[in-house]
Structure formats: C-alpha cells, structure tokens
Design goal:
The protein is of the alpha+beta class. 13% of the residues lie in helices and 30% in strands. It has three helices and eight strands; from the N terminus they run ααββββαββββ. The protein has an eight-stranded antiparallel beta sheet with strand order 1-2-3-4-5-6-7-8, covered by helices on one side. β3 and β4 form a beta hairpin.
C-alpha cells in the first residue's frame, strides 16, 4: 500500500472511530508547514495539542521482496511522531435536508503530521467544510503528463494548492517529493462515504514522474452504540 493510500486509510479510520469527537482547529496557513524544517515544537505552538499522538522508534531498515512504489514509505532508523487533529461537526447530523451542504450533514476536518527525528517529513489533510474544503476536480487529472508536467502546472491545473506532501523516508525516493490531493466526505442521507485522491511524484527538477489516483464510494460502517457521556473511544492505527 503506497503512502497516500495509507494516509487516506488512516484518515478514514480516524473519522469513523471519532464519530462526534475531536476539537475544532484551523488548518495551517499556506507555507506554515515546511518539510524538513518544521519541528514537533513548532507544530504544537501552531496547532496546539493533537487529538491523537503516536510515537514509533525504528532500529533497523525493513527489507522488501521486490520493487517498491515510489509512494511507499521506506522507514529508516529513528523516531517517528505522528500528530492527528480531528474535528467532526455533528450539530446538523440528525437533519436530513438537501438544503444543508448539498445533503451532507457531517462536515469533517482532519490533519495528520509525521515527523522523523523531530522534523516534518509528511503532512496530509482532508476537509469537507466549505471554508477550507480540500475538494478538487478529478476530471483535471487527465491533463497531467508524466515526464512533462511540472509541479507548478499541476497546481494550476487543479486550481488549488495540494492538501498534502511528503519527502523521504515517507516516500521511497531519496530525492524529490510527492504532492497529494485528498477529499473524503460522509453522505449521511445515502449512507455512503465518497473518497477521492491524487498522488503525484515530482523529481528533483519538479517534473512529474509518477502518479496514482482513485475515486470510490462505499457504504458507511455501522456505528456502535453511543458510549457513556464524556467517554470518546478512538483508535488510530500506526503507519508502517
């Protein structure tokens, strides 16, 4: 499973498990997060304490049995910190009306940061709130050409900045970076979750060398019985 799919899966698991949970937060301003520069302390100062924090220490490099996708993380020895920020607005969840958010009654905002030895190496976000939505036009993906399109042109084609990016070792290539567009929303009236994403690998010269995309609609999972007041169960799997 390559990096962007792993990230999308973690976001989905976070949203499902945290139904009605989380703390409202503002997405960082453009340029506030810098790969290889932003530290865990910087992130805490900017965003406050995360809803979920995981730490993993890697002591040896895992071996692989075959070719590795450029989008796959290649964990190197060191300490990895994962901060996850989540907010789900359930205030309108019981209202079934097409006049509200096009029939979707549960806006969601998620931001995930991954640090390696204290420095940011990956971040990704998803929001179905109108003011900071990560929604994008998947029909424009066909305009992107491997070996020709540049990173700035991808942004121009998509009409907005990417919602995530990653560098080594959260991708397999020691040079270059990935940019991702990710959007997921819960359609409660139809009991469905719509998810789409685009991952683009840019080489050291900022030229597109590889890309992956997906657009899916799946049934929403059955929610467990409501917990006792004040108890919010959540499970966010560790990335491997």
């Amino acid at each position: 499973m390559f990096q962007v799919r792993a990230f999308a899966a973690v976001l989905l698991a976070s949203l499902v498990a945290a139904c009605g949970a989380g703390r409202n937060f503002a997405m960082p301003a453009d340029g506030a997060l810098k790969l290889g520069v932003t530290t865990t302390s910087d992130a805490l100062s900017l965003l406050g304490a995360p809803y979920q924090k995981n730490q993993e220490t890697v002591t040896s490099v895992a071996t692989t049995g075959g070719p590795v996708s450029v989008f796959s993380p290649i964990k190197q020895p060191g300490t990895y910190d994962r901060f996850t920020y989540i907010f789900l607005d359930t205030s309108r969840q019981g209202v079934i009306s097409g006049a509200l958010a096009g029939g979707r009654q549960r806006p969601e905002r998620v931001l995930q940061l991954v640090f390696w030895n204290g420095k940011l190496v990956s971040y990704g976000s998803n929001s179905s709130f109108e003011n900071d939505s990560t929604n994008f036009d998947e029909n424009r993906i066909a305009q992107i050409e491997r070996g020709r399109t540049r990173g700035a042109e991808v942004v121009q084609m998509m009409g907005k900045l990417p919602s995530g990016t990653a560098i080594y070792p959260m991708i397999a290539a020691p040079e270059g970076r990935t940019i991702t567009y990710n959007f997921s929303e819960a359609d409660l009236p139809n009991n469905e979750r719509h998810r789409k994403f685009l991952a683009v690998y840019l080489d050291r010269d900022d030229v597109v060398r590889d890309m992956q995309s997906e657009n899916t609609t799946n049934p929403l999972p059955i929610q467990p019985a409501a917990p006792a007041p004040g108890v919010v169960p959540i499970f966010v799997p560790r990335g491997k």
